Each structure stands twice: as structure tokens, then as C-alpha cells.
Amino acid sequence: MRLNIDNDTSYLVDRSSADIEGFCQDYALRRHKYEEKANLGSLQCRLDWAKYIGPIERWGSCNPYEGHFGSVVIPICKPERLAIISYIFEYAFLYDNVVESVAKATLNVHADDIGLDETEYRTVRSVSGTKQIQSKMMLELLSIDASCAQVVFDSWKTMIATTAKQDKTRLFDNLEEYVDYRIIDTGAPFVDTLMRFGMGILLTEDENATVAPIIKTCHAALGLANDYFSFDVEWREFEKQSKKGSMTNAVWLFMQWNNVDIPEAKRLVQKVTNQYEQEYLRRVENFINGEGRDAAKLHTYLKAQGLQIPGNIAWSLRCPRYHPELCDEAASLLENEMKLASPDMKFDRDIADNASDSDTSASEQSTAWSADDNSSKRSSVSSTESIEDQLPKRQPLGTEHLLGPAEYIRSLPSKGVREAFVDALNVWLGLPDRMVTRIKSVAETLHNASLMLDDIEDSSPLRRGRPATHTIFGPDQTINSANYLLVQAMDQVRQLDNMQCMDVFVEEMRNLFIGQSYDLYWTRQGDCPSQEEYLEMISQINLLGQYFQIRDDYKNLSEDYTAQKGFCEDLDEGKYSFPLVHVLTAQPRNFQLRGILQESRRAGSMSLPLKQCVLEHLAQAGSLEYTHATLGKLMKGIMGEMEMLERKTECSNWVLRFLVRRLRV
């Protein structure tokens, strides 16, 4: 079976033999017709890297000899998607390989794709810059194809969770054990989802399960071929380290397992790679002629997957990444190519080594829950034994009961919106990482305190899909812990050594409690505020905060929010949310709705039939549509302010743009 697929975006590369340097027997090599888009994507990434992070350290995915990595590995990618995919490939190559970038990436696996974590990096010298580039990538993926983009994000997060547990110093006893490791280590599943994005293909869970045993052989062949061609560069680095430790490379492993030299070990790696290549062809053919006879979409997917094998081999033969001696010549060739494709695009030839160490101390990385240990040994002022010395030794009280509720609320999954907003603002402010970490800690501490108090005041049984804190620790203990966090937050602000920060903190805390007092009063008295009063209550919040509050009101009355907070939980709490304020303002004589709200407030909850009835009243008055339109106006204002700040600072804020995109309803 000759694995090939005809399409309008690529052409078949002629070659003199049925293989490529002993690999890819009976595989067709294709190259994208719009390769200039791939080169432009990579070069744009390098420009962004230099702008946001620092000097370029090594060659990436461009190859003026055999074709850009994206052009030959995903030759049937839709032309309009090739640039962003190549941008991502370049970003990954700048971290040595895909998994290295993903395993140490800044996506928060608990953050629902909104928040970004801070992590130590081996090559990245700017946390803020890294987040800029990642946000730009994700925003572009979402704008092109949100459904396929979500698959890429899910794969990314899965890899973060799995690769973080990988032991890169381990020794392997056999090839099968190593191949299972290497498939993950090379990032093959993540590249797979990028290929699907490029093609616009979505697979169901059943389809994924069906093809998994087939594509495993393809991923194995890709990983072993990567070892074969990257070995020489890696070996030179290994020799510089006096051959200490071990290499994560099949060639080196065969040298150890069989006690052979490098040429023989390479021959063995090529042999097992060929076996996986042929096994993939066999499994694809059996599937197409057997159980998958009618699965046309999977036929296309599997053939496209197979095109990665010869593309990877061809690219590896003379890529400057594996052959540093070609860098200067390749740079000149590529520069000439790009002048023809895009005269204004510049190519950075620098391959610099400019690592830096983090200046954040361990104490600055401590969380809001790290209680100070103020206990100290009492010094003696006299050799004479005092009365206190005759008493039992004092045992300092621990903080486990005080911080138990706080630790619990902190452990619940969070979207990380506030942390992401701080990151976004820092794109313009450029504060040092240690200062940003402290500000995030203040925001997290305050937010968790408010959540614990809100759930008690609203009698909420759930928080983020889990039991609310007070239902586990009791209201009294939860209130005490929340109050401590408020004091802790004030102390953190005090440590910023800026009185203006303390003034802002006190003023905003005062506004917070005043606003909450109105919310509680309206709920308890059954007194519906006017729209003006409701908006005034949240007017102390910034524009993005207003949007988030009304968005929360809107989503609480929609089905996609019920898993986290319960079905229309605001109705159980008797709260006057923005949609309710609208319907009661628009229909002041709607006594049926007012009666439902009053009786449910007395009962402390609302039955499902009554909730459905309330939703019918909202639908009749067009309240949800009105709320959605209000959110649209607020979003327009947010975008306007953001664009104004970008013009003033002359800096596009991709982190903020991505955050706003994810918050849009």
C-alpha cells in the first residue's frame, strides 16, 4: 500500500527511490503549495519572541532545502491555517521540543483556559512575554475555529498533567517501555491535534478510541526517527558534559543495551523505525478494507497522519536545527526566499545563548495561607527561676483550624480570571515578577475571603460544583477564617511599601462592604432595586468587573452554569440579579412573579417547577435578551478602552485580548 492523499493544497515530491535514506518505504512525500505562509508564521513568532522575551537561541522549523517543517509534515493543512500552526511549531522548537514547551507552559490546568500560571523556565527569561505569545496563539486559534481550538487546548492541558510526571533521567529496560515514554515526550498527541486543527477535522470519543491503536505505530515511528536524526547534535552536548548521566535517545539506549558503537546503534534504530512504519501501513490498510470501510473521514485522517512520517524524515535530512553547520547558508537562502514572498519581513539570524536566573526568592513565592511563625524562645534576664519558669511550658497554638476553611476554598478549581487580569495589566506596567506575584496573592486572598462570606450570606450549598465551605466547617469557623484572610490581605498590601496602595485597598474594601449591604438589604426585605440602583451598586467596579458581574447573573440563569452552581441558584437565594431587575422594572404589576419570589424567599429555596415559571416570565419580558444586549454594550466599551490603551502604550496586549475573548458570551 502506498500511503498518499491527493489534494489542492500540496504537491507530490518526486524522488529517485521508493524510500528516503532508508526510511519511509512506500510513503508518498508531499509539500505544501503555500509554504511561504509557513515561513511567515515562523518568522513572526521569532520576531515576537525577540520582542517579548529576548534573543533567539537556536534554529527552528524553517528549512530552505527540504521544506518548512509544517509544510512537509502537514501538507494538507488549509492554507489559511498554515501560518498559525507554523507559529506554534516555531514556538515549540524554541523550547527544544514540543513537550518541553508544553510541560513547562503557563496554561493553568485548573483554570478553564483563562488563567495562566507562573513557572520557572530553562530558556524563557520573561514570564510576561511568554504569556503574551501564548495568548496571541490561543486567541488566533479561537478566532479561526473555536471547536478545533478547544481540542488543541485540551490536549495541551492533558500533556501538562502527564509530562510533569515524566522522569527524564530514568533508564529504560527495553524498547517497548521507551517507545511508550517517547511518544509522550516528543509531543506527538499534541502535534496530532494541531494537524486536525489545520485540516478542520473533529473526532468523536469513539473515533479517537478506534484509531488510537493504529496511530500509536505512527507516533512511535516519528519519535524514533527524531532520535536518529537529532542524535549527533545531542551527542555533542552530551560529550560537553563529560558523558555524565544518560541520554533520552534510542541510539544511545541501543549502545547501552547491545554494547555497540554509534553506527551500529543507528542501524538498529533505523531497523525498528522501519518496522513501525510498515506496521502503520498494514494497520491502516486493514482498517480501510475492514471495519472502517465506510469511515471516509477517518480514511483522510489516517492518511494525513501517515504523511507526517516522510515529511519528518525529509525535513530532518538537512534542517539547520540538526545540522548547525548549515545555519549561515540556510539563513541566506531563507532570507532571499522571504524577500520575494514578503519584502517587509525581516529574518533574525541570531542564535544567542542568554539565559537568566529568576530573582524571586522562596519567601516571595509563599501563598496567602503561609502563616507567620512568630513564636520565639523566651530569653532569661536572670539566673533566678521565675514564677513563669515554674509553670508548664507554653504550647503555641497552631493555625490548622484557622486556615482549614481557607485551604479548602483555595483547593477548589478556579477560572483564574483575576490572576490573568493582573498578567494582562502587567503587559503595560512591566512590574517585576516578584511584585506581580504579591499582587496576585492579594487578589486571591481577598477573593477567597469574599467567596466564603458570600456563600454564608446567600445560604449557597455549592461553590464551583463542590460543597460550599460553611457546609463543611460550619458558618462560625468559616467566618473567622474569612476575616483572618481580610487581615492577611491588608498585611500583604502593607508589605508593598506604598501608602497609595494601602489607601486604594481601604477605599475599595469600604466600597465592597457598602455594595454588599445593599445587596443583602434588597434580598432580605424583598425590595427590588431599580436598574439605576443596581448599576450604582456595581459602579465602583471597573468596566471589566461590571461585565463579569452581569455575565455571572446571566449565566446563572442559563443551563451551562448549572453544573457549577446548581440550576438557577440565584433564585434559591432570593437575590435580585440583573435579569430579574429588568423584568420587575418592565412589568411592575407582575404580581405572580413577585408572589413566587416572596414565597420562595420565605421557604429558603425555590422548587424546579417555580424556577421554570420564573424563566418563562423572563422570556416573555425579553429579560435575558436585554441582559445579553447590555453585556454587548459593555464589551464594546471594554474593547474601546483596551484599544485606546494599546495606542497610548504602543503595545498590543494579547493577554488581555485573549482573556476578554474567553469571557465573551
From TrEMBL:
Q: Which family does it belong to?
A: In the N-terminal section; belongs to the terpene synthase family.
Per the record, where are the segments of Low complexity compositional bias? 353-363, 370-385
Cross-referenced SUPFAM superfamilies: Terpenoid synthases (SSF48576)
What protein is this chain from? Isoprenoid synthase domain-containing protein
Example GO BP? mycotoxin biosynthetic process
InterPro entries in UniProt? Isoprenoid_synthase_dom_sf (IPR008949), Polyprenyl_synt (IPR000092), Polyprenyl_synt_CS (IPR033749)
Q: Pathway listed for it?
A: Secondary metabolite biosynthesis; terpenoid biosynthesis
Q: Where is this region: Disordered?
A: 349-399
Which keywords, in A-to-Z order, does the entry hold? Isoprene biosynthesis, Lyase, Magnesium, Metal-binding, Multifunctional enzyme, Transferase
An example of a GO molecular function for this protein is: metal ion binding
Q: Which domain of life is it from?
A: Eukaryota
Biological source species: Aspergillus avenaceus
Taxonomic classification, please? Eukaryota, Fungi, Dikarya, Ascomycota, Pezizomycotina
